[in-house]
Predict the 3D structure of the following.
Amino acid sequence: MKGMKKVIGRPKYLKEVPNHYCPGCGHSIIHRLLAEVIEELDIRDRAICIPPCGCAVLAYYYIDVDMVEAAHGRGTAVATGMKRCLPDRVVFTYQGDGDLAAIGTAELIHSANRGESITTIFVNNGVYGMTGGQMAPTTMVGQKTTTTPKGRNSVTDGPPLKMCEFLSPLDGTAFLARTSVHSPKHIQKTKKAIRQAFQTQMNDEGFSMVEILSQCPSNWKLSSVDSCRWIEEGMIPQFPLGVVKQRQTEPS
Amino acid sequence: MKGMKKVIGRPKYLKEVPNHYCPGCGHSIIHRLLAEVIEELDIRDRAICIPPCGCAVLAYYYIDVDMVEAAHGRGTAVATGMKRCLPDRVVFTYQGDGDLAAIGTAELIHSANRGESITTIFVNNGVYGMTGGQMAPTTMVGQKTTTTPKGRNSVTDGPPLKMCEFLSPLDGTAFLARTSVHSPKHIQKTKKAIRQAFQTQMNDEGFSMVEILSQCPSNWKLSSVDSCRWIEEGMIPQFPLGVVKQRQTEPS
Amino acid sequence: MIHKAIIAGFGGQGILMMGVTLANAAMREDKQVTYLPTYGAEVRGGTANCTVSVGDEEIASPIASNPDYLVVMNAPSLHKFQSILRKGGHCLVNTSLVHEKSIRQDVKVYEIAASEMAEELGDLRAANMIVLGSFLKISSMVKPETVLEIVDETFRRKSPEVMERNKEALWAGYRFFE
Amino acid sequence: MIHKAIIAGFGGQGILMMGVTLANAAMREDKQVTYLPTYGAEVRGGTANCTVSVGDEEIASPIASNPDYLVVMNAPSLHKFQSILRKGGHCLVNTSLVHEKSIRQDVKVYEIAASEMAEELGDLRAANMIVLGSFLKISSMVKPETVLEIVDETFRRKSPEVMERNKEALWAGYRFFE
Amino acid sequence: MKKNEKVLLRGSEAIGEAALRAGCRCYFGYPITPQNELPEYMARRMAELPGTVFLQSESELAGINMVYGASATGTRVMTSSSSPGVSLMQEGISYLAACEFPSVIVNIVRGGPGLGNIAPAQSDYFQATRGGGHGDYRCIVLAPAYLQEAVDLTYRAFDLADEYRIPVILIGDGMMGQMMEPVVLPEFRKDLPAKEWAITGAGKGPSRFVRSLLLDVHVEEAHNWKLYRKYQRIERREPQSESYATEDADMVVVAYGTAARIAKGAVRRLRDKGMKVGLFRPITLWPFPSKAVARLAESVGKFLVFEMSMGQMVEDVKLALNGKAEVELYGRPGGVVVTPVELSRILSRRYNAMQHEA
Amino acid sequence: MKKNEKVLLRGSEAIGEAALRAGCRCYFGYPITPQNELPEYMARRMAELPGTVFLQSESELAGINMVYGASATGTRVMTSSSSPGVSLMQEGISYLAACEFPSVIVNIVRGGPGLGNIAPAQSDYFQATRGGGHGDYRCIVLAPAYLQEAVDLTYRAFDLADEYRIPVILIGDGMMGQMMEPVVLPEFRKDLPAKEWAITGAGKGPSRFVRSLLLDVHVEEAHNWKLYRKYQRIERREPQSESYATEDADMVVVAYGTAARIAKGAVRRLRDKGMKVGLFRPITLWPFPSKAVARLAESVGKFLVFEMSMGQMVEDVKLALNGKAEVELYGRPGGVVVTPVELSRILSRRYNAMQHEA
Amino acid sequence: MKGTILIKKAMCKSCGLCIEACPKGSIFISKKINEKSYFPAEFDKKNNECTGCGLCAVMCPEAIIEVYREKK
Amino acid sequence: MKGTILIKKAMCKSCGLCIEACPKGSIFISKKINEKSYFPAEFDKKNNECTGCGLCAVMCPEAIIEVYREKK
Ligand SMILES: Cc1ncc(C[n+]2csc(CCOP(=O)(O)OP(=O)(O)O)c2C)c(N)n1
Ligand SMILES: Cc1ncc(C[n+]2csc(CCOP(=O)(O)OP(=O)(O)O)c2C)c(N)n1
Ligand code: SF4
Ligand code: SF4
Ligand code: SF4
Ligand code: SF4
Ligand code: SF4
Ligand code: SF4
Ligand SMILES: [Mg+2]
Ligand SMILES: [Mg+2]
């Protein structure tokens, strides 16, 4: 474009293909951020992603790094196996809330407690996206899902789990942050948090996780724009944003 | 005995049989306390115990209440199934630290978060007793076990998990306490905590757990008396005793 | 004899509803019937389709690899399914959303601008009922009266207005090919 | 020919060590050998025992359901195993801890107050070596020299003193039945 | 809904409704495609039915152990999942079998191994019939081919589970789960008999326990033989199968579930062309209807096993026939659903080859 | 330790040491009796060996998925457990098979089902050979009967796993794990070939991925057939067995592992008494040495399968013989270990009955 | 005009998030359906207020918006 | 004497915890082995200082100590 300079474009490591995500889905935004951070940190050669069973199961089609698919919930165990064999790689799992906070609870907690030098990108959209919108451990009280037709009942189903806060007492966790991708401002903050998490790993400080509130318009049965509003008004009060833990380690 | 009055004897619901526990083992003390509390609360008719895979697997031979053995780590899931079908019974799991804090992590956390109206008697002896003294999630840093021949290394194995503190942020937990059975005084406190936990369940206030530091002379390779000393000097500093959480609910 | 129809379109077009209505009508007529939707792919896509099989003998496979009828409500569906329509089969096309022509010469094609017609009727969402009406005309899988009965029962409880509008749409589509 | 011995006693008596030493010696003599301890019951008990099989042909089962030799280091072990000792078999008893007599008349019984002897030697824990020495005498599964070699190698690195004391104990037990 | 009225139901809903009518009072499960409609149906329906428990478990592992707990109390209980989820239940199923806790487990099988896909498949046959868990045990395995049969077998599954104190696996696939067919629903069960073995608190009586730890090998062996005798009883009494056009057949296709539907369509086509082909359809996969198929071998020389897998049931057919007839496999793994037309082509080729040889 | 020197080792340690010498660099596992000595040995030894990873996983479920991760990087990796723990690994094993990740899994089988006991048993045969997980897949299953063989097969297991990119299960029991026998250890493997399929970061090249999700049924089917062809290759090349005193035998006992040792003892006794009895011992349980046993059926009329279970391998023997000889089962479940003497009594009774009939 | 954007319409899913994000109202939904049957977002060339701020691109889930600014 | 205890020696495992717990030194380890091959704890009848405080019984893992106090 004559007289014009490109200031934003598609990141280098986001493959030039259409994705399968629903319109307005937060996963696609998060994919882009990962591609950007990987480019900026120049770690494409040594990054390994472990995509989940969940809507992001096909992440290998989109982000241009090596990947190994994990069984549902076992991402951090797989990452542990890989990282222990390849300590100089940047190994990260990508997990949904069902994957991470329900079926994968034990693996997550023990990986975090061991302080595995891995990073978890935790996409909290409050539902099981891929399987069609069932209750997730992070579903809000009162939220209707296909398995809570009358809304999540805190008495029978329990309240939503706040994973960042929950993990923070564990010594092994070095960086824990909750962000969101419902507005440009929050997207930029998310990117920063992802970068910090990777950096934490590269400094070998311990386990790092970024929990990202992410819109699932299809299963929330809201428009993309209303989904962003729901994050702002419905979710953030329950899941406050910010760095939940950042361990200060002496420079070594 | 003439002129004398029996002030302490074997509790009614502790069966009159020798047990299989090693000399000085904390499990046997805890069994007795359970029998006493069940007698005092008069709930022998409606108590159901779910013994674990662990040294206490044979608890049904000793404590005179109905029991259903659970697969290793699944106690709270089994208890959930039972209690949901029999809401007026007093359902409690009996679990070791390997059972509860390693393989059973996910079931424990989700049962606690749902606020299942069950009680967990959590015997923390810092090792896998039954299988011969391997590292448990609660093994102390530096402690030698058969799988940590050079002592638990917090870098590769992570530090010990403090389960009471870990569970306390969960809304579903109503009563959480850590006690010990290494001295008569602490034994009495443990009994009180067990009673409170059962009472919590009977008031339908939510999930209750008593974590009990318990001696395993055989695997610690210490005498019974030294084992008690190790609890006092080695474990309690890491696992502070006391009521960690007691939810105040309005009388209903 | 068994007849099979594939109905295909977007997610929100009421495709599955058409199929279920048809299947219910067939059941009411005591015919053998199966209905099969494409199901909840673990990965989302924008399309929906279903297969209805109706006949007087046990239906072996609920899948139609060679359907007698094809109802296409959008362009991708035409691309996807036209090749498997049986020779001499019938293809009903909603031309409001499908602008291309079928490339096959060996099938009968019926065209209806259902969305426009629905707009005229005052309810864009009734397009599926219009097409269903047309389908009843060009096929003979079930009687239109039975479908009316089903529509009546389905919507009466919800809203008599919607029921009336749907019935109207159904007849409009039916009459279109008279 | 294959000979089988069961050695049984308390957990802390060095029972398994006796068996392993025997097995090592048999291996050194190029015999066929298996060693089988009772293993880590998921539930603890106070007893320990092991079975050593030595022979010149492949050993089928490492279990002895009908052993040629029985070495009992405590009373419960006598109760547990005496009935399976083969007719005419040999029963070596540590009378320091086993006060009852064997009830069987069809076996040869050898008695030694090993604990007292060990105390005399100045090391109560050497009782197992004394009994092992006696066993070498009454059986002929392996040569005492080979066992000495093994004991030498096992303990030399740890402590020459302990080695010497064990050897002494071994000979004392051996000589007891000379 | 009037009595005996036909209703058009989706497979998963038909199964769910039949379960509720059979007295199922507890459902524990975890989402997985292609069976999500079943828990979702249970969630909706159980919210209305008093005295029922619907709980979405945190995993299949937790789910099967909740089933174990509920069953221990004598409650009729069900879970459902699909292949990977059912793999996670194997330890639990082994425990259920060992403790003789009745339970109904629905497996809507998908393509595998691994994550595979969600298309119809029959590759969990071994897992279901041989016990994917450890130890000697069996589950009754029911494989409906029609939704009416799915309803009837689900209803029956709870009775079988209670009668024999055994886990019962109902096996289907995504096609069965998603399709709709007219069905007549059975009546709601009332007054289920009490289970005197159930663990419900000792009351005034002696305390009891259920466990599978049997440290004494002779006790464990006795328990194994006790189970074995039960399994033999089931093998004698409960095999079920359908024979179609087998009377004068020269060749018989053996297929179950979805594959059997397709096979029946294919057989019909071949019969129309005058080929003497029949269909044998096992309805119970375990106990396998060995006698019935062996009886056919008295007159039939060739059996063609059609499975949506690389060949698993074929072993049971061979075991049943023990060399008495030729057994061939036509396996289509990975979720491919062939059409009756395609299958009829395959069959006619093999039929003609056979005729040629003879 | 000198080269080729005999050493007296406990079974579990022999397996552990052989694994390390085979180039195993990673061990993940969870305690369970009767195999605790193996992880304990690995913990001790790996603390000394640089570049190795020992990690006690929080469960068998986590353990098998750590194996999966390590294997994905091309590292030789092992886990071990016993029956209930192996049941928990079934999903993971299915994924390993699907992704063709080489791995070695040791199952020191115990009595079951459920918690059972820790005595020697062979009741996980189905699980190991048929795949207790979901989907069409196979694992190579090796069943040593002697500790030297345990060493050799463990060593070989890693090569097989790499060569065929397949999970290999080494199956033993508590007796094998606990007993000591003299063994000669193999040399430490050096310079293992690089695996170009391993996922280690893209480097400068194109990025790669490994997955088992294959949504397109035709792609999944192609993958299944690819696996199938591999399995057929293994079935052609890798069956191993031992025949003992079968040349002139009228009756052959079929047994593996511990049972085979006992059977050999019994056979020797019977031979001493002049009875023409032999032993066929499968060393690979999958691929089952079907051809070898079928060849025996040319001269042998009766096969007696001796299993420490209610009868699982007996199916493979029947399938192999396909009616060509009589197959009988002598099964002892629950952890009971019969003695050679007892077994020889059983055998001689059956032998005499057979002679009588003939 | 300080800035402009390019939308790869063929890949647009019509989620509307760019429109919501644009402070200048420079984007609208096109009336012409794309190959994927979505009505794609379109840059309003007449609006002329685009500052090249990039918010639309930051928001776009499909990463199909390129942002250009006048060279200084 | 204000108190006394009864130890069911046959079931004693000689752990010594009662001895450690007794403030009065009223318990000792017997020299006579029991059926389980343990040297059981024994009440020191001569010591005569037992107060019946019950600490030994509270501590005993085997729950085999009965405590008696003088009737008031
Ligand atoms: C063992 C097992 N159980 C269940 C599933 C089915 N499954 C696939 S993804 C998923 C959950 C998806 O939810 P989440 O993790 O929140 O990811 P999202 O799709 O919302 O991003 C489930 C239950 C599976 N693949 N494996
Ligand atoms: C699935 C499974 N894995 C492993 C085991 C073996 N096992 C039995 S008890 C136990 C742990 C015992 O430790 P803990 O829970 O701390 O109880 P303790 O014996 O110390 O009281 C283990 C690993 C098992 N029974 N099942
Ligand atoms: S279902 Fe939800 S999470 Fe999944 S792709 Fe669609 S919007 Fe995204
Ligand atoms: S091993 Fe430890 S926990 Fe188990 S019975 Fe012995 S002392 Fe108690
Ligand atoms: S760059 Fe800024 S002003 Fe221009 S279209 Fe995008 S959001 Fe609007
Ligand atoms: S944000 Fe992207 S995908 Fe959404 S409407 Fe705008 S350009 Fe299209
Ligand atoms: S009751 Fe008190 S004083 Fe008496 S023996 Fe026991 S501890 Fe000692
Ligand atoms: S505390 Fe009990 S078991 Fe221990 S020594 Fe005293 S009486 Fe014996
Ligand atoms: Mg989610
Ligand atoms: Mg413990």
About this structure: The longest strand of chain G covers residues 65-70.
